[in-house]
Amino acid sequence: MSSGNQVRASHILIKHQGSRRKASWKDPEGRVIMSTTRDSAVSQLKAFREDVVSGKAKFEDLAARHSDCSSAKRGGDLGPFGRGQMQKPFEEATFALKVGEISDIVDTDSGVHIIMRTG
């Protein structure tokens, strides 16, 4: 992994009205997603981030419960990836983090994310 062209990360995705696909494993009909504004998605993520940083909650537990990505069942783990495999903003944010760091809010076509670099 130390080659520098691969990283490993976990994330929590919250989908909202502006998301490309308005459905997820926990909201197959997209009812919640369609009524979620980007602002409310962002404030949920900010609260999750606070809880992790303050030690109140573990990133993987929050991901497992709340993430709209199917990676939720792995605690948000996306495994290792290189450049060109993820949406650009997601890739750039992940490569900019140090291992163990958590990103600020990252916007992609999928929704809003916080990302924790794990490798």
UniProtKB/TrEMBL annotation:
Its EC number is 5.2.1.8. Gene3D superfamilies: 3.10.50.40. Residues 1-30, 64-85 are annotated as: Disordered. It comes from the Eukaryota. Residues 4-119 form the PpiC domain. It is an enzyme of class 5 (isomerase). The keyword Isomerase applies. Signal peptide: none annotated. The keyword Transcription does not apply. Residues 13-23 have a biased composition (Basic residues). One of its GO terms (cellular component) is nucleus. Belongs to the PpiC/parvulin rotamase family. Prolyl cis/trans isomerase with specificity for phospho-Ser-Pro bonds. This is Peptidyl-prolyl cis-trans isomerase. It comes from Punica granatum.
